[in-house]
Structure of UDP-N-acetylmuramoyl-L-alanyl-D-glutamate--2,6-diaminopimelate ligase:
Amino acid sequence: MPDLTTPSHSLSSLLIGLPVLAVHGPTSVAVHGLTLDSRQAAPGTVFFALRGATVDGHQFVGKAVELGASAVVVEELPAELNPATTYVQVADSAETMARVAAAFYGHPSRQLKLVGVTGTNGKTTCATVLHKLFRELGYHVGLLSTVQNQIDEEVIPATHTTPDAIRLNALLSRMLQAGCTHVFMEVSSHAVVQHRVTGLHFTGGVFTNITHDHLDYHGTFDNYLKAKKGFFDALPKSAFALTNADDKRGPVMLQNVAGRRETYSLRGPATFRARLIENAVHGLHLELDGREAQFRLIGVFNAYNLLAVYGAAVLLGEDPTEVLTVLSGLTSAPGRFEPVVSARTRVTGIVDYAHTPDALENVLQTIADIRQPSQQIITVVGCGGNRDGAKRPIMANLACQGSSRVVLTSDNPRFEDPNDILTQMQAGVKPQDLGKVLTIADRREAIKTACALAGPGDIVLVAGKGHESYQEIKGVKTDFDDKRVLLEMFELLGK
Ligand SMILES: CC(=O)N[C@H]1[C@@H](OP(=O)(O)OP(=O)(O)OC[C@H]2O[C@@H](n3ccc(=O)[nH]c3=O)[C@H](O)[C@@H]2O)O[C@H](CO)[C@@H](O)[C@@H]1O[C@H](C)C(=O)N[C@@H](C)C(=O)N[C@H](CCC(=O)O)C(=O)O
Ligand SMILES: Nc1ncnc2c1ncn2[C@@H]1O[C@H](COP(=O)(O)OP(=O)(O)OP(=O)(O)O)[C@@H](O)[C@H]1O
Ligand SMILES: N[C@H](CCC[C@H](N)C(=O)O)C(=O)O
Ligand SMILES: [Mg+2]
């Protein structure tokens, strides 16, 4: 694995142009590293005290100083200052950290064609397909996504959809050094609010859609929309802003955009248009930008993703015909509508990352569109702990509306009691649907039961965890892979 760059700068050079309220101590100190975690502080590092969701990083300034941090960046100065450390006081530590991180790594985003994808659903799909497309077109390409980060085919594990600003700039720098010309990344709403992408130079931004999610974190839908829009508002004049004109909030996203405003649509006038010819089990047949093509991705929602990818590629200067030709052969991201068929009774298992009401509704609608009338749909679904609770009853109800049988189960309970989550899900089940619902907290058992219920040719949808290779219970991640469990159960039950 190539080394991460370890640049060295003086503190003063990193602070050029930034609004600093006060400095105590010398700014000539050499900086070899940046950290947001006091436990990683050491001589030569700058520690940024961030106000977190759980704790206030200012509590750990003393610890960082004790470990030898050369400088600390704070919003509030501690009562006692250590003469061996430089204290930089700013109005917003998170924003300052992002700008310092960009400078520390030499502003890699300015030398890359960096495209960010935001929206409730479809970010990973679009970013991953863009990565595959540009690889096929012959470029060296970086990817920052929920599933994994990549430099060409080299995989770098991801812990977040969008990494923190330090890791993000370090990764961009590494991508640049590896010869990447393009980087496609997901921009989560958390990332925008927490300034993870502040100070990056984007060549383009793509908006997929916005529906219910993360209201636990953002409080209101309006704040959630503001976060997504914040990314578009900050795009430079030189960038393109590509939005989904068919999404209710698509046009709002463009309101304050300084750059080129572009749209895509399946329903009306737009820069990039598509018409659905066929949505079948083997893929989509579309007329895209005036030309007919067959695609391997399934479901109308993927027609939107394909259109967004096509639009972004053309806006990046690629030849439309070549883009269509390559795009038609590409598959989706792992764990996104991924089918596995049992050997004997031809039960189709579908593993999908639908963990929002909109995604679940779309996936069930897609299955309804492509299934044979004789095929029953059995859905296994849960909702994550320590995340938006409001979606729980809604998702249980949607599962009932779109399925013959439903097994409610656990997703990643995290620090919540799985049975509490399940009770909240059950509250969404209509009295007339109670007969089709089973509740089994153990996800493995739930998948086993769904497989046992499946007759020859039926469809078992396992929703919510997609590519995830673990289940997180009380802070401990244990190996768990929906696709593997499905295959195991098919085998065990002779399906
Ligand atoms: C809610 C949320 O976004 N949390 C992120 C946030 O953590 P936090 O606010 O809880 O941090 P905290 O524990 O309160 O600590 C505050 C500060 O004190 C520091 N600290 C803490 C302890 C200590 O001893 N010393 C110390 O310096 C911490 O490093 C931190 O800088 O800042 C951390 C550092 O960047 C992130 O790792 C953490 O992501 C957590 C793990 C997380 O689960 N985030 C999810 C919700 C998230 O970000 N998801 C989005 C995608 C969603 C989607 O795809 O739909 C993502 O982009 O991944
Ligand atoms: N354009 C779309 N519109 C609606 N639903 C979609 C769309 N694309 C994908 N989905 C559904 O949403 C799920 C998640 O898709 P994907 O991983 O691409 O989204 P994401 O925005 O990256 O999600 P996350 O916020 O968790 O990173 C898919 O498994 C599918 O069920
Ligand atoms: N990026 C999303 C993923 C949710 C996936 C689902 N399996 C869950 O654990 O809730 C989040 O962190 O909220
Ligand atoms: Mg994602």
User: Anything to note?
Assistant: The CA atoms of residues 376 and 458 lie 5 Å apart.
